[in-house]
Amino acid sequence: MPLYLGFDLSTQSLTAVVIDSDRRTVVFQTSLAFDRELADYGTRSGVLPSTDPQVVHAPPVMWADALERICVVLAARIDVSQIRAISGAAQQHGSVYLARDLRSALAVGDVMDPIGPRVRAALARATAPIWLDCSTSAQCRALATALGGDGALRALTGSRACERFTAAQIRKFAEDTPEAYARTARVHLVSSFMASLLIGDDAPVDAADASGMNLMDIAARRWSREAIDAAAPGLESRLPTIVESPTVIGTLAHSWRRRFGFGAADVVAWTGDNPSTAVGLGLTRAGDLAVSLGTSDTVFGGCEADAIGASDDGHVFASAMGGYMALVCFANGSLARERMRDRCGVDWAGFAAALRDTAPTAGGAIVLPWLSAEITPPVPRPGLRTRGALRLDAATAIRAFVEGQACAMRLHSRWFALHVQRIRAAGGASANREILQIVADVFEAEVLPGTTTDAAALGAALRAWHGDRAAAGVPVSWDDLAAGFADTTADAVRPIASRAAVYRRLLEKHEAFERECLDRDS
Ligand code: ADP
Ligand code: XUL
User: Fold this and answer.
1) What are the tens digits of pLDDT across the range 256-286?
2) What is the pTM assigned to this prediction?
3) Whose atoms come closest to the Cα of 130: which ligand?
4) DSSP string, 288-310
C-alpha cells in the first residue's frame, strides 16, 4: 500500500490529499481554511486587510502554522509512516523574504517545538505580496523598458511585465525599503518556501512556477541574467536554483518525522497551483482545456514553443509535465461570484437556481465582471460595466454576471485554444453544475468536472508518485498516473446545441463592449 501525499496551499486554504497508488484511490483528503481555522492572523479570504486595495499580502507564518496543523490531522487519521513521497502546489507568483538561510533558522531550538516562531524570526519581511497584488505598475514599466519593451520580455520570459509577478514585486520591495532588501538573504516563491519547511533547508524552485516571475528564460529554463539585473541589485544570489519539476529535492526533515511519525519520505519539488492542476486533471491530450474556478478563474492548456509571446495578456509557463502550458488568469473569479451571490441575497443553492431558471443571454444584458481590479484584460479601476437591460432582477443579474465571466474566458483563451474539444473543470466553483453548463454552452464543448474540486492537491500527490518512481528508475507515464483518478466521463456537462448561435452573438457583443470600455478607460 504505497501512499503519496500532496498539498495545495491556495489563497484561502491548505488542502492535503493522500493517494494509494496501487488501488488508485484517494484514501484521505482534508482542508484547513485560513480565515476560520487560523483566525488569529486576521485574514479575509486568505489575505490581510489593507488600506490600499492594490496592496494584497498574506502572512507566511500562517502558512507554516497551517502546514503543521494539517500534519496533526494527517497523523491522527492515517498511517503517515507509509507515505513514500510528498509534494505540493502553491498559489503562484507570491514571494517570501528571508533574512537568513532556512537550514540554520529551522535548526534552532528543540525538534519538538512549533515551527512558527522560528519562521517568524527568519523573515526579512513579515508579509508576502501575493498574486492579487497589483501595486507595481511603475516597476512593470521600468522592467519592460530595461528589457527592450513588453514584446521582448514576453519572448524571453513567456509573459509581459505583470504586476503580480515576482520581478516587479521584488523591485518594489528593493526600491521602497532598500535596508530591508539589503537584509534579505533569500527570496522564495510560496511553493519553494513551503517545500523548504518540509526538507528543513532552502529548497529549489521548479521551472513551472519559476515561469511566473518574469525572471526565467523560458526556452532555456534557467534564470535570465538580463531580467534579474533589471529587477533588483544583487538578486541572483538571493534566488533559489531552478530544477525540473519531477526532481526529488530532499528527504522529509527529522523534526516532521519525530513530531508526527512520518518516515523518511522523499520530497519532490513543489510547483504552482495551475501547473499542478494540469497534472491532477490528467491534461495530457491535445485539444483538452482546463477551466479552474478557484479564488482566481484560470483557463489553460498544453501548447508548443511557438505560443511564447503570442498574447499580450496571457502567459506561457513551463509545464510541470515537460513542454509548455498557456494560461490566462482572471482576478474576478470566485470572490466576485460570492459578492454577486451576497448582493442578490441568496446562497449557492439559490445562485444555482437563478442560473437554472433564467434564459440564456439574460435579457440582452452584457456584463463585464470587474468588481475588483482585473488581470485579464488589465483593468486597474474596478467597477461593473454593463450594457443593455436597465434594471435586472436578481436572478437575471446573476446569469448575466456568470455569462460575462464565461465570455471573457472564451475570448481571452482563443490565442491558444481556438478549437476546444473537451474542458476539464477544477476549483471550488466546479462543484456548481449550473456554472459549468454556462461554460459548456459558451465554449460549445463538453465540461468534465474533476474527481475532486482540489485537483491541485491531487496533482501534487500524483507528482510525488511520479517523482518517487522516476528517482527509483521505474518511471510511470503521466497518462498512466492520471488514469483512474481523472476519469469522470459519466459526469460530463454537455453543451446545449440550441444555445450556440445565441452565445456566438453574445461573444461578439461582449468583445466589442470590452474594447469600447478599455478605450474609454485608457
Ligand atoms: P482556492 O484554491 O483558490 O483557495 P478553491 O478552489 O478552494 O479556491 O475555491 C474556493 C471558492 O469556491 C470559494 O471562494 C467559493 O466562492 C467557491 N465555491 C464553493 N462552493 C461553490 C458553489 N457551490 N458554487 C459556486 N462557487 C462555490
Ligand atoms: C495564475 C494566478 C493565480 C494564482 C492563484 O497566474 O495568478 O491563478 O496561482 O491561484
Assistant:
1) 999 999 999 999 999 999 999 999 999 988 7
2) 0.97
3) 2
4) EEEEEESSSEEEEEEE-GGGTT-
List b or e across 477-501, with b for residues whose CB sees 16 or more CB atoms inside 10 angstroms: ebeebbeebbeeeeeebebeeebee
CB 152 within 8 A of CB 161: no
Nearest ligand 2 atom to alpha carbon 10: 10
Neighbouring residues of 258: CB distance < 8 A, sequence distance ≥ 6: 111, 112
Asked if the model's pLDDT at residue 162 lies above 80, the reply is yes
DSSP output for 6-67 = EEEE-SSEEEEEEEETTTTEEEEEEEEEHHHHTGGG--BTTB---SSTT--EE-HHHHHHHH
Predicted local distance difference test score (pLDDT) of residue 450: 84
Q: What is the DSSP string of 411-464?
A: HHHTTT-SS--EEEEESGGGG-HHHHHHHHHHHTSEEEE-SSS-HHHHHHHHHH
Pocket test for ligand 2, best of 13, 15, 56, 93 (most atoms within 8 A of CB): 93
Q: Quick check: CB of 427 below 6 Å from ligand 1?
A: yes
Residue 273's H or E segment, with its range, is helix 273-280
Q: How far is CA 5 from CA 316, 427, 469, in A?
A: 28, 19, 14
Q: Which helix (H) or strand (E) holds 186?
A: strand 186-189
Number of separate helices (H) and strands (E) present in the chain: 20, 23
Portion of the chain with pLDDT greater than 90, in percent: 91
Residue 390 pLDDT: 65
Q: How close is the Cα of 153 to the center of ligand 2, in Å?
A: 20
Beta bridge partners, 222, equal 217
The number of beta carbons lying within 10 Å of the beta carbon of residue 349 is: 9
Ligand 1 touching residue 294 (CB < 6 A): yes
What is the SS3 assignment for 129?
Answer: strand
Nearest CA to 267 among 476, 88, 473, 73?
88
Q: Report CA(260)–ligand 1 centroid distance (Å).
A: 30
Dihedral sign for Cα atoms in the order 418, 424, 425, 431 = positive
Amino acid at 155: A
Span from the CA of 193 to the centroid of ligand 1 (angstroms) = 25
**Set of cell numbers at residue 265:** 519520505
From the CB of 11, is ligand 1 less than 6 Å away? Answer: yes
